[in-house]
Write a structure and sequence with these properties.
With about 270 residues, the protein is an alpha+beta fold. It contains nine helices and eleven strands. The strands form three sheets. A seven-stranded antiparallel β-sheet has the order 3-4-5-6-9-10-11. Pfam families: Chalcone_2.
């Protein structure tokens, strides 16, 4: 309840005290209402916080151990495989947390694979070797399941800023594959079109701390995008879906070393638990 002080003997119509008094009352009311609104928002956020989460050690942000992705009038639960943080500049400023989630079919695939259970070691996902590339590719593409990437800004940012970061590493991958001859002119043109489609799915305005982007490689190859729980759409490009997920798991170039190390530990836990 917001209380208003009594007018008292100093407030007279037309006196110099009247303006001062009502200005003071207005400031008090605004401050009280703002405090009440902030408390309400804070309570709502705390109530919405998942019961199970892990704390990313650099950003100190809470990362849920499970998420639910909705698309095409259906929903699916995903389990956290690993988490890390994206840092930039020589000061290693934290930009956002990045987390990889997988569905049950992917973990079952790993646990039943002879190569994963007999040959996998954590350093094989971290190092830039042929083994590393095989494990990354198989983790993303060697199964009928689905895999998600969750991006949670450490501080307020905007859609174009995050979008440009994605476009940079994807166009660099396109350039490398073209130079190696693994991507022909027609495929490159199709990929450029899919990049344009992805650009359109990013929010055009501000993205506040706590507003989350989730990218999901669906079983049919599409890349589904959601922002703050709202479906933004999907891009029908298996190559784009593959490169988005691989981009955060490849060690050359590396986007988040801590994410790769955490995913490697998560996979190792799946392998060792069998």
């Amino acid at each position: 309840m917001v209380s208003v002080p009594s007018a008292g003997p100093l407030v007279y119509a037309g006196s110099k005290y009247q303006s001062w008094y009502w200005s003071t009352v207005a400031v008090g009311l605004v401050g009280a209402v703002t405090a009440m609104a902030f408390s309400s928002i804070q309570a709502d956020n705390e109530a919405a916080m998942p019961l199970e989460f892990k704390v990313e050690p650099i950003s100190k942000l809470n990362v849920p151990t499970r998420i639910t992705v909705c698309h095409d009038d259906q929903s699916k639960d995903f389990q956290l495989l690993g988490l890390g943080v994206r840092q930039v500049t020589l000061l290693y400023l934290a930009v956002y947390t990045a987390a990889i989630y997988v569905d049950d079919s992917l973990t079952q695939r790993i646990s039943r694979s002879t190569r994963w259970t007999q040959e996998f070691a954590q350093d094989k996902l971290v190092q830039n070797t042929s083994d590393s590339k095989w494990f990354v590719s198989d983790l993303v593409n060697g199964h009928p399941g689905e895999i998600s990437l969750r991006i949670d800004p450490v501080r307020n940012t905007n859609g174009p800023h995050l979008r440009n970061g994605f476009v940079r590493f994807l166009t660099e991958r396109q350039r490398q594959e073209t130079l190696k001859g693994t991507l022909d002119e027609k495929e490159s043109a199709a990929f450029t079109k899919s990049l344009d489609d992805l650009r359109a799915l990013f929010p055009s305005g501000a993205i506040m701390k706590g507003q989350v982007l989730v990218f999901t490689k669906l079983s049919d190859g599409r890349l589904h995008v959601s922002f703050n729980g709202r479906e933004m759409g999907s891009v029908n490009s298996p190559l784009l879906s593959k490169w988005v997920m691989e981009g955060y798991l490849r060690s050359d170039p590396v986007i988040s070393p801590s994410l790769i190390a955490s995913v490697a530990a998560g996979v190792n836990h799946v392998v060792q638990s069998q």
